[in-house]
Amino acid sequence: MQTLNPLLLALIAGLFTWAMTTAGAALVFLFKEINRKILNIMLGFAAGVMVAASFWSLLLPATEIAKQAGIVEWLPIVVGFTAGGAFLMVMDKLIPHLHPNSTDGNPEGMPSNLRKSILLVFAITLHNIPEGFAVGVAFGAMANDGVTLAAAMVVALGIGIQNFPEGAAVSIPLRKEGYSRRKSFMIGQLSGAVEPVAAVLGAYFAVNMTYILPYTLSFAAGAMIYVVVEELIPESQSEEHSHGATIGSMAGFLLMTFLDIALG
User: Would the N or C end of the chain have less CB density within 10 A of its end CB?
Assistant: First the structure.
């Protein structure tokens, strides 16, 4: 498998994470609504996985690659991480979107007359771009021995695992708001459709621009942490006593840490 094209591996991994999102979204055919405490645990779990993946699978390899290349170790971390967060912040301001769990129902970003369903898809797409990009960068880094095949597979597995509850966390609340099961499912699964594209793009940058590889890894980490702090954590803390979300976050972090150390 090591001889396979990293872009092909990234595409397969992106399709896997999308499939996991689709499987989670399909739960809308079994449940009309989801208990808020369970939803908070799911969101917290996803946040924990993303934080762990950002450190173990992206930032830590970035420092090692920078050291081997004779670059000041902290420089790509600071520059790439900042750029990743700034990119998502700019996109958040420019692209009109509406989060599924929005309390006031007002779209964010630039003013738009787009339908609510389209705005929901845009919001979810913004959320999943950094996840797919991170998967792609991990597989692309294999070409330069920056990341092992096992480590890259762990990134894809971790993102896929947290995509399952994320898919349900999107589709089931939409059903409760009055959307049909089919439309709720379609919007939910679309939340992962961007990941194969982002994965191939991330792998392309990692393979063809090796001199910026540590910056690219850090960029993906910054974008993922932005999503965690901007969306997942606030949404998971919807109750006064949100111990479930906290436990979910710790469980997600521990699971991803175990996978990365044991398998990566």
Answer: N
